[in-house]
Amino acid sequence: MAKNKPVVMIGLMGSGKTTSGRLVAAALGLPFTDSDQYLQDRYGATSAPIAAREGKETLHRYEAEHVLEGLAGEPKVIAAAASTLENPEVRAAMGRAFVVWVDAKDDVLAQRMRTSDHRPDYDPATMRARREHYFHEVADLICDVGVLSPEQVRDEVLRQMGLPGGDHT
After folding, report:
1. Which helix (H) or strand (E) holds 40?
2. Binding site per annotation, positions for ATP
3. Cα–Cα distance for residue pair 136/33, rounded to 1 Å
């Protein structure tokens, strides 16, 4: 697999999509795009304020737009909001990418979610029950970020893609 294929980082809130995604992008020499930054740049706020202001359906439409636009252009690493997996068009488009599911136990994700005020207040167990089957459907690689560091996720992505640099320790 070549590094000219897009990479999509998926996972529930707090899983480290952005942190791991930035490392993967740097290792591959590809641009990085993150849902939170996209929302801020395009709509003037991150997910929690948009959900409060315009509703969850609108937020999820904006998040899906981010992934579809990212996959339509030159290859890049995309940190995708978990909600995007509920959109069949997004799941189909992810077929063109190498999809990495960064995951951890619900208690780990809940703790991480409390560290940021830009995230809506959601229960990881509820989100997992709603979306886990979609994660399994699209993921090419699953990384347990409860035990793997972001650097180890990067290395595993490179290894699975058959690229040099996947042997860092």
Report:
1. helix 35-43
2. 14-19, 119
3. 23
Q: How far apart are CA 108 and CA 105, in angstroms?
A: 5
Q: Output Rg (C-alpha) for the chain, integer angstroms.
A: 15
Rounded to two decimals, the pTM is 0.88
pLDDT, tens only, 23-33:
999 999 999 99
Q: Which residues does the annotation place in the binding site?
A: 14-19, 36, 119, 131
What one-character DSSP code corresponds to residue 9?
E
Strands (E), the chain: 7-10, 32-34, 77-79, 98-103, 141-144
The most distant pair of C-alpha atoms in the chain lies apart, rounded to whole Å, by: 45
Please report the sign of the dihedral spanned by the C-alpha atoms of residue 145, residue 147, residue 149, residue 151: negative
| Residue pLDDT, tens place only, 40-92 | 999 999 888 999 999 999 999 999 999 999 999 899 999 999 889 999 999 99
What's the rounded Cα separation, in Å, for the pair 77 and 50? 24
- Binding site for Mg(2+), by residue number, is 18
